[in-house]
Design goal:
By secondary structure, the protein is mainly alpha-helical. It folds into 2 domains: 79 residues, no CATH class; 61 residues, no CATH class. Helices cover 55% and strands 8% of the residues. It is built from 8 helices and 2 strands. It has a two-stranded antiparallel sheet with strand order 1-2. Helix 3 runs antiparallel to helix 4, helix 4 crosses helix 5 and helix 7 crosses helix 8. The longest helix has 22 residues. The radius of gyration is 27 Å and the shape is elongated. It starts with a helix and ends with a helix.
């Protein structure tokens, strides 16, 4: 019972300190540089986190474990304790979605050169009568599968089968069988 009361007291103290900090005005010592806005601080703080760290930090915030959240941010960011406290307070006040670092711009991809791997598995199913075939791959998506179907429907079955083998882990024979079910 006593550890629970201590935890509640610490949580209330951290919450009150975070609120007081966010309402604090600039120091009276003149036109020193103003601290960044809380929303801006939250964006910068979230950018320092990996996807797993972001998930763990927000889980701690949601559970009301402010001290553990500050400790986690302190450990992963390399910032000081006060900066970590401020960052966690900003993240709690202005929740930020996880944003992966933007990929470097690359040249436009030529048709079916090097297949891109997606973070999900795409399932393509074709059937005719009692025969059903399925292709599951993380190198397929709606756009690529649409191009393959267009090739098959236009009569270019070899090109469709070749494209399907490039974007999946099936053999050419299996790709031809799959394409034959699309061709009607």
């Amino acid at each position: 019972m006593i550890p629970l009361l201590i935890l509640v007291a610490v949580t209330v103290a951290v919450t009150l300190a975070a609120r007081a900090w966010s309402r604090r005005q600039r120091p009276a010592g003149g036109p020193a540089q103003a601290p960044p806005e809380s929303a801006d601080l939250a964006k910068v703080a979230a950018a320092r986190l990996s996807e797993d760290e972001h998930r763990r930090l927000y889980a701690l915030i949601a559970q009301g474990q402010a001290m553990a959240a500050i400790k986690l941010y302190y450990e992963v960011s390399g910032l000081g304790l006060r900066a970590s406290r401020d960052a966690v307070a900003a993240l709690a006040a202005h929740p930020q979605p996880y944003r992966a670092e933007p990929a470097a711009p690359s040249e436009p991809e030529a048709d079916d050169e090097t297949p891109q791997r997606f973070p999900y598995r795409y399932r393509a199913i074709a059937s005719k009568g009692d025969v059903t075939r399925e292709v599951s791959s993380n190198m397929l998506n709606d756009e690529i599968y649409g191009r393959i179907r267009t090739l098959a429907k236009s009569g270019n079955t070899e090109a469709a089968a070749t494209a399907l083998t490039k974007h999946s882990d099936i053999t050419m024979k299996q790709a031809r069988e799959f394409i034959a079910l699309l061709d009607d």
